[in-house]
Amino acid sequence: YSPKSLEPDQITSLHELAQAASKLYTLKKKQSESEYFTNLFAFTQNIVCVMDKELNIKEINPAFAELFNLNKEGIINKYFPDLFPENKEELYNTLRATKSSGEQGLFTSTNLQTEEVISIEWHFRFEEKYGEFFAFGQDFSKEISERTKLEIPELKFRNFFENSLGLMSMH
After folding, report:
1. How far is CA 19 from CA 14, 24, 28, 38, 103, in A?
2. Distance in angstroms (rounded) separating the CA atoms of residues 71 and 65
């Protein structure tokens, strides 16, 4: 038995076929990963925002729009620090520091138009490759509100208990 040899044009065709198959596999993998991140972006309850170098909002997730009670179009292209007037200067400085350090964090507390106070812990990241800021926030307003509601009864109970111990030790 003698093996057949391949012609140079057949070898070239096989290389091209292998490259095409490799590209197709890589494309499918990137597409599925993109779908995972798109779903994560859409369904997370955390606040996610993408800004350009000038801190204008390019993209937000639904949780961000819901928090501010605005539609997506009402927030896109707005200057990010303007959304948090009480923390505007601090936000600006933190984001500028993020540009040089890569990552920064900040806790903001601001009043919404509904007179509701929101407290958000932010994590900022600057991607030099894309020239974009990524902001990831977690709303702690409900937790802070619950903690405040529990502190008052706890203080009353503690005062009652301390007073009753004092009275009991006198007898």
Report:
1. 9, 9, 14, 28, 38
2. 6
The answer to whether the beta carbons of residues 84 and 110 sit under 8 Å apart is yes
Q: Are strands 47-51 and 57-60 parallel, antiparallel or unpaired?
A: antiparallel
d(CA 23, CA 21): 5
Contacts of 80 (CB under 8 A, 6+ apart): 49, 51, 55, 56, 57, 91, 95, 133, 135
Q: Do the beta carbons of residue 49 and residue 135 sit within 8 Å? A: yes
CA dihedral 129, 46, 113, 150 (to 10 degrees): -140
Q: Sign of the C-alpha dihedral, residues 9, 11, 14, 19?
A: negative
Task: Say how far apart CA 151 and CA 163 lie, in whole Å.
Answer: 18
**Lowest mean pLDDT, pick from 36-40, 57-61, 154-158:** 154-158
Residue indicated by tokens 């902001």? 135
Q: What is the pTM of this model?
A: 0.68
Q: 50 pairs with which residues across the strands?
A: 59, 134
Angle, CA of 146, 149 and 151, to the nearest 5°: 110
Q: How far apart are CA 62 and CA 142, in angstroms?
A: 18
What pLDDT was estimated at residue 167?
A: 56
